[in-house]
Specification:
Number of strands: 7
Largest sheet: 5 strands, mixed
Strand content: 5-15%
Distance between the termini: 77 Å
Structural class: alpha+beta
Low-confidence stretches: 1-22, 264-270, 355-364, 402-410
Strand order of the largest sheet: 3-4-5-7-6
Order of helices and strands: EEHHHHHHHHEHEEHEEH
Number of helices: 11
Length: about 400
């Protein structure tokens, strides 16, 4: 039967779990327990011979407990009426009042203490009215009438049940808040882990872009030189091929370094030195064009992330120079160690190469966008644009105190 249909049997088979599941009904455990206790204790308290009619009246209350979730007041009224009706054939005992006790507790636990008190008072009055005012009409002997002792015990039991129901509601709300807080923390943790994984993938993609863009452009330039000089100047062509071999080996080493994060714990650590400004000479030596480097300020150890970012930005800037600068272009790199920051200036001189397509001089190229993103993740900035006779990339990277990070004084 369709699950959305509001009628039908209260149980349906859950094929995935291999068992029956309820539809909007309360757990039947309370009904079973109440019915068992009331049925087992009935024979010891009745002054009238037990009949089927008396058994049906006795079990109406426990049976109604399965609907206590949606109709708590009605269920209590039915359970109380069932027990009061059976009380006309029995001595005052708690054994046939288990169902109304469960119903009263449930009414308070659902957050309706006022309704629980009114219902308890009404059932209390109805019980003593029936068992005293109408006792002779029902043929009840005098020895089965409830007395003051029963009245006090019944009133105290009702108060205790209402109090316990309210306490159970408070506890369930507290547990719900605790579970909600745990779920929120777990959700926040998962979101943070996903964000960190996404940031890490972005960082690796940027690193791979820088590595492959730099070295492949260098290989392309040297391959073109080698083809041009192959027949006329074979010695220079050999040098170009050697440069290609060096660039490809360096590219492979750097790709391995970028992917080192995926290295297993028991795998040996990489032997290649960490990328940073200390390897700037190696970078300029393999650039494929004349480059001058100038370092000013008090040179000091940099935080690893700043040192690596500076190297990658210089590498990407030189890649752009090779891609877009015309023949005979030169470049210069200025590294300035400021008191609280690192300033880089990469400038090339020479006309743009018309055969290179769209230039990065407009500042919209993916290389400059990558440099800008890399700097912004460290709180820095990148400015790029054409200058007289060339193109300038200016980078400012904040440098927090690296003494604690490197273990050496600045």
């Amino acid at each position: 039967m369709d699950q959305t249909q509001p009628w039908g049997p209260p149980w349906r088979e859950d094929r995935r779990a291999g068992r029956f599941r309820r539809r909007g009904w309360a757990h039947p455990g309370a009904a079973v327990v109440a019915g068992f206790i009331q049925a087992m204790g009935a024979d010891d308290v009745t002054w009238h011979p037990m009949t089927r009619w008396m058994g049906a009246v006795l079990l109406i209350g426990p049976a109604a407990l399965v609907a206590r979730k949606h109709f708590p007041v009605v269920v209590f009224m039915i359970a109380a009426a069932s027990s009061i009706g059976f009380a006309t054939w029995a001595s005052p005992r708690w054994t046939y009042a288990v169902a109304p006790a469960f119903a009263l507790f449930n009414l308070a636990r659902l957050g309706r203490p006022r309704a629980a008190m009114i219902a308890a008072a009404a059932s209390f009055a109805a019980y003593f009215t029936v068992c005293w005012a109408f006792s002779h009409r029902f043929g009840m002997p005098d020895f089965v009438r409830p007395g003051p002792r029963e009245a006090v015990l019944l009133a105290a039991a009702m108060v205790v049940l209402i109090f316990l129901g309210g306490a159970a509601k408070v506890r369930s709300e507290h547990m719900a808040e605790v579970m909600k807080a745990r779920a929120e923390r777990a959700r926040a943790k998962d979101e943070q882990e996903r964000r960190q994984a996404s940031e890490e993938r972005l960082r690796m993609a940027r690193e791979l872009h820088d590595v492959l863009g730099h070295h492949l452009s260098l290989i392309n330039v040297q391959a073109g030189v080698g083809l041009h000089l192959m027949e006329k100047q074979p010695e220079q062509a050999r040098e170009a091929l050697a440069a290609i071999k060096t660039a490809s080996s360096e590219a492979l080493r750097e790709v391995r370094a970028v992917l080192d994060i995926l290295r297993a714990e028991n795998e040996a650590a990489p032997r290649q030195p960490a990328l940073g400004l200390s390897r700037l000479d190696d970078l300029t030596a393999d650039a494929g064009l004349p480059i001058t480097t100038k370092v000013t300020g008090d040179e000091r150890p940099l935080p690893p992330e700043v040192d690596r970012a500076a190297y990658r930005i210089v590498q990407e800037a030189l890649t752009n120079v090779r891609k877009h600068a015309g023949p005979g272009a030169t470049a210069s790199i200025a590294v300035d160690y400021l008191p609280t920051a690192l300033h880089l200036a990469i400038r090339n001189e020479g006309p743009a190469d018309p055969a290179a397509g769209a230039s990065s001089a407009d500042g919209e190229g993916t290389g400059i966008a990558g440099m800008r993103e890399r700097a912004q993740t460290l709180g820095g900035s990148v400015e790029a644009g054409p200058v007289d006779g060339g193109f300038l990339v200016s980078v400012l990277l904040p440098t927090p105190d690296a003494t604690l990070d490197n273990g050496s004084p600045s």
